[in-house]
Amino acid sequence: SLDQILRLRGASMSGRHRNLLPDNLPQLQNLIKRDPTLYEEEFLQQYRHYQAQLEIFQLKPSENHKPLTEVVVFLCQVTQCYPQHLANFPDELIELLRRHGRVLDPELRMTLCRGLIMIRNRGLLPPIRLLELFFELFRCQDKLLRKTLFLHIVTDIKNINTRHRDNKLNTQLQNFMYTMLRDSYHVAAKMSLDVLTELYKKNVWRDAKTVNVLSTACLSSVTKVMVGAVKFFLGADEEEDESSDSEDEDKPTAKELVFRDKVNKKTVKRKKKLERAMTVLKKQKKKKKQPVASSFSALHLLHDPQDFAEKLFKHLEKSKERFEVKLMILNLISRLIGVHKLFLFNFYPFIQRFLQPHQREVTKLLAYTAQACHDLVPPEVVEPALMAVVNNFVTERNSSDVMAVGLNAAREMCARCPLIIKEDLLRDLAQYKSHRSKNVIMAARSLIQLYRDIHPDLLHKKDRVCCAYCVMAY
Fold first, then answer.
1. 3-state secondary structure of 347
2. How many CB atoms lie within 10 A of CB 297?
3. Residue 268 and residue 451: Cα distance in Å, rounded?
4. Of 36, 67, 253, 271, which one's alpha carbon is 20 to 30 angstroms from that of 96?
């Protein structure tokens, strides 16, 4: 009959279809996801094929094995369908990468890593083993692989800590990263540093342990690692983020959008476009109004800032780095001294020798000198640095701009440590209020005004008061 003929034809077509499945892995994986039990036999056939290809691969691991790549992608896609058969499959891939990671073909290595990321995203693999493996794979000379692993590590740790903090996992990873920052391969150490700084910026690991682990990187012998850690403490990366935010200011405001809508011809398409733009602007305003989760400076989270500053200064004295790198370290040391009011008496004679008008980046050096002054430092320690500024900058042989810079630097140092200036020197500097240059006059007046507020007895009588109310006060 007709029904029997159709059944026979359907059976023959389904049999022919099944015979083609082993050669068409994307179609097979699609069918397995729909009904795993129906296609278990075909899956086991492919799993045996994977085991055979794995044994062949073990003979020459440095070569590109395309059949192994294809079957690994297939098994990663269907891992959740056959958990009993593929229980050891992720461990096999991890062991394969750990043993032959550096010599593997780049395409095969990337396929294995992406497969493991897929399995991890489905919750079939614990994070600690995979993250430790990925940190070890930073040693591979493959830039695209390192970028992929970096993005996954940051995203995965952020997702783990979204709802509640996993302190046990965080402690294990932070301890592991501490060893990676001292890795002999500098690229791996730099990538580990980037992971830590990125997680700190995203408010995932914004604790004292992270900051103190990063402080060890400031003493690294590898320049890139050291510069990255110093930039983190100076907040240079946050300034870059602020500059990127300033680019958003070029976008049109709500008033401009409404004005454009009034001028242009009104259509349904333009109306919808205006509504979308207004929605985006409202979201951006909400984000700006939201308070920052933690604006606490990383410098305040250091366990022992005095010891850290002393080690940094010793590192600076022995350093043979470029002048720009030395400037960054000087900036960090001076900021540490100013924030924590530390005692590092050798710092002032060290920076004093650079305080010359012809010195490159001398304005930054003057700022660092003033930054390192505070009221707990003995005046006799900082006084030579102040005298160097006055003798080298505030003289008639220099231009008026140089003299104004010197007077302003002296004022900043005196504002932080008022007792470092003697009465005779202050009165001499006050005489520049009648100089021919307006910049020098303003700088001298600002110095006079400072000591009117904090110590008027050091000034001349005519400079002590400026009005009747001041006379009554004294």
1. helix
2. 13
3. 68
4. 36
